[in-house]
Amino acid sequence: MGISRRNFLKGSALTAGTVALTGKAAKASVDSPELRIKGLQTSTTVCPYCAVGCGMIVHTKNGKIVNIEGDTEHPINRGSLCSKGSALFQVANNERRLTHVQYRAPGSKRWEKKSWEWAMQRMAQLMKETRDRNFVKQEEIDGKTYTVNRNDGMAMIGAAALDNEECYLLGKFGRAMGVGYIEHQARI
Amino acid sequence: MTNHWNDIQHSDVIVSIGSNPAENHPISFKYVEMAMDKGAKLVSIDPRYTRTSSKADLYAQLRPGTDIAFMGGLINYLLKNDLIQREYVVNYTNAAFLVNEDFDFNDGIFSGYDAESFRYDKESWAYQVDENGMPKRDDSLEHPQSVYQLMKKHYARYTPEKVCEITGTEIQSYMEVARAFASTHKANKVATIMYAMGTTQHTHGTQNVRSYAMLQLLLGNIGMAGGGINALRGESNVQGSTDYAVLYHILPGYLKVPTYDNVDLATYFDKWTPKTNDSQSANWWSNTPKYMTSLLKAYWGDAATEENDFCFDYLPKRSGNYSYIRLMERLQHGGFEGMIFMGTNPIVGGPDVNAIASGMDNLKWLVAVDLWETESSVFWKRPGVDPKDIDTEVFLLPAASSVEKEGSISNSGRWAQWRYKAVNPPGHAESDAYIVDQWIKRLKELYSKDGVFPEPIVDLAWNYGDGHEPDIDLVARECNGRFTRDVVVKGKAFKKGQQVPSFAYLQADGSTSSGNWLYCNSYTEEGNKMQRRGLEDPTGMGFYHDWAWCWPVNRRVLYNRASVDVNGRPWNPEKPVISWNKLTRKWEGDVPDGGWVPMSEDGTKSPFIMIAEGYGRLFAAGLADGPLPEHYEPMESPVANFMTGQQCNPAVSVPGKIDNSGKYPYVGTTYRVSEHWQAGAMTRNLPWLVELVPDMFVEISEQLAEWKGLKNGDMVTVSSERGQIEARALVTERIKPFRVQGKLVEQVGMPWHFGFNGMATGGTANTLTAAVGCANTTIPEYKAFLCNIEKGGIKS
Predict the structure, then answer these.
(1) What CATH code is assigned to B666-791?
(2) What pLDDT score was predicted for residue A37?
(3) Is B683 on the interface with A (CB under 8 A)?
(4) What CATH number is given to the structural domain containing A51?
(5) Given pLDDT bands bounded at 50, 70 and 90, which one contains residue A38?
(6) Cβ contact (<8 Å) for A52 and B682?
(7) What is the CATH code of the structural domain delimited by B324-458?
(8) Does the beta carbon of B173 lie under 8 angstroms from any beta carbon of chain A?
(9) What are the extents of the domains in chain B?
(10) Any CB–CB contact under 8 A between B533 and chain A?
(11) Could you report the predicted ipTM of this complex, rounded to two decimals?
């Protein structure tokens, strides 16, 4: 992740974040005294916990989140948040978050830090080998031969924590890879 | 949800069953209370006396897994006392339809059952049809083969006395619930049902939901403001991830995944496009070819042509059930080399987690993408194993959180709302979109050189800009769909590349693409509607049509054409969802469920547009386990089925590791708490939440505590046929034993959030649950199993 990308995203996301289709700015909570948010940039988000879909305001300063609170304009929660929603700040600012690609070799007792480049190459290679070894082109069922074009060597699980667009990309990727075993939290 | 959160304020009776909104969807309770302030009654039906129960006007205790007995009794009460919304039932449901003479039900088994395969031949469940292929009907509802009479006969067995013997409910509370619910049969009164996983996580989970839906149809409550049947979904985007079909059996927008015998696109269309002879039925799924072709165009772009069947062969064809439980069984048999976990933690969240964890030992490789080190990502150093013995290569990839990336999520009320990126992810963390993008780009490169059947990968349309990560705006546009050439549709000219205005414009000839037809209209030439923040509410009904966007086509209440009489007049004029303006000859209010004229006029369509016959199904011939919900005991139960000689759902085969011998005497059930979330990674790593609920616990009754010599806070061992865990005893009067068929049945309840890793650790409740699922969906039966409880920690 290069410096240029950081600068690019900082600029675009924060301005995009505050302008709605209607052209109306997503204002910070109406009861926020001006001083409290002076010099802070605001953007809106939606709670990542349950599916009520409460709106939140995120305040940032110098690329760091300094505050998250309920969005008083949001028609569902009108500024309220529950215990989990109120704790989102600690998801963004948390020393337990993963910050590096980690790799565990077969039989090893520990993680090793790896670069994205190395890990991506290795994963792509493994996925290809698995697909090529386990690809079922045709299957015989009740005495007839059918083309099924399926990769039975791998399974994919999870997506409820992903955005819609990411779910779409994940599904598109999985189906192109021929994966039939695609499941996630909605099933369980 | 057929309705949405704000809409709950319009209810007269709110029935919370299999859900605990005050605890698990706290902000939704704002609308429950708003309704109560206006005089609504809250009914809480739950095994435990929950936070929701504590706010309720009526509380009825229900033994886990006995919803159908409870609801069947209510159906009986409505039919016996003629407390139904008759005009609605006759005109909008299949109550008047006649069912085949061969249909039968005998001692718990419907006609057509094959005990060897656990399957039904459903032919005898079909409607009788006339010479034009139209279902025969009797609007007087008197015909003995009418759905109404069959239903009446079926549920006559569910007397209040018998029901309460099964459910353990006090009969007085039961009758109070029956009277409250039935009061909404009046055209202008409405009840809502709020349900969640307490309903679905059973071997008869789908039939539980059906029983609720049937009641709502009989009372005329579907389509109404303050009505409907509302699943309170537990994850912020589990609605969206379902709509986007990250599941084995569906493609985006609930299109079917092709099966092995769909040898070409025409065969696929023939098999999966429902047909009707009723010209009054919209039969919306008749558009399947348009939506499927548009999806194939979104996937394979210019490579997908009419000549090559739009690359239909590139899609994998399934030849079995690949659902979660089956998938995990295959894992245990060494069926997979590799697995990808995207923000998921199966060895806490799956059923019978010990079996899943040992299955993972068979993997050659595992990729886990997460914000945290989860239990599943460190399965190779879980307690009781030596990492030396596990040969899996594991990749743990640091992901971006919700405020570190951009995109939409869909809430339970189907509102797709946009989230913006506030900051960069920490360290080297990246968005899920970045990760998937990198995989496919590298695989495209590898497969362009060699490999088995490279075409689906090499030809995959993947055009999301040249940035560091995919341009999410471009992805959102593709999900909506665009025209692939200049065309005229419905008299309107569109240019190549233009966004498709709504799914009504999608075509089956390759002239449109759409990554998800259900979201077609979310991102049009007007812009990205999911970003909208308009607060106008001209009807005062809280639809907020200019706030974000909701599927389908921004319709806020589904089946809303059932909220009006045949002349288009709202059943409840004070809370109209839509109404027909005779002067302008247009619908007003919410986006109508199809713009057709009212039912009394020519050219109309029946309101249940997603059903081939157009009528709400009181009797549903498509289910695996019967056309009418019938009470069966959970797979593990301390009592015999008091209703029939059929103990468990006959359409579910009995798996291994089930013990009904009496060795495990107590009913176990799992649930969530407000301070934690799902498999725990997102809350057990946050100091504030860990401080609030630091430990795994098991709730037990005062009587059981006394019997076992336990006091609050004591360490106990909870065991089942699958395994054992330690937990702190939480002795409470909120948990009470049930009186079932003259015997006292104890229950214990526990949260399922804990695991061995993270900041707060504790026993994993799903060590105890069984890998057996619903006959229709295969959702695991987490909510009712048998266990034992003993004082002290695990004795090894």
Answers:
(1) 2.40.40.20
(2) 81
(3) yes
(4) 2.20.25.90
(5) confident
(6) no
(7) 3.40.50.740
(8) no
(9) 249-318+482-519, 324-458, 666-791
(10) yes
(11) 0.98
Residue pointed to by tokens 């990205």: B528
Residues 6+ apart with CB under 8 A from B337: A130, A133, A134, A153, A154, B363, B364, B365
Q: Does a structural domain hold residue A81?
A: yes
Mutation to test the B interface, candidates A7, A98, A99, A100, most B Cβ within 10 Å: A98
B454 touches chain A (CB under 8 A): no
pLDDT, residue A34, reads 74
User: Is B547 in contact with A75 (Cβ distance < 8 A)?
Assistant: yes
Type of residue numbered B252: P
pLDDT tens readout for residues B280-335:
999 999 999 999 999 999 999 999 999 999 999 999 999 999 999 999 999 999 99
The stretches of B250-377 forming alpha helices (DSSP H) are 265-272, 288-300, 324-332, 346-349, 353-360
pLDDT digits (tens, 9 = 90+) for B756-768: 999 999 999 999 9
CB pairs under 8 A between A and B: 507
Shortest CA distance from B442: residue in chain A: A124
The string of pLDDT tens digits covering residues B121-140 is 999 999 999 999 999 999 99
Confirm if B194 and B42 have CB atoms less than 8 A apart: no
* Domains of chain A: total: 1
Residue A166 domain-assigned (yes or no): no
Q: Are B5 and A53 a contacting pair at CB < 8 A?
A: yes
- Minimal-distance CA residue of chain B relative to A91: B686
Mutate to test the interface with B, among A44, A46, A126 (most CBs of B within 10 A): A46
CA dihedral B780, B781, B783, B785 (to 10 degrees): -130
d(Cα A129, Cα A70) in Å, to the nearest integer?
Answer: 48
Domain containing A25: what range? 3-92
Neighbours of B459 (CB within 10 A): 20
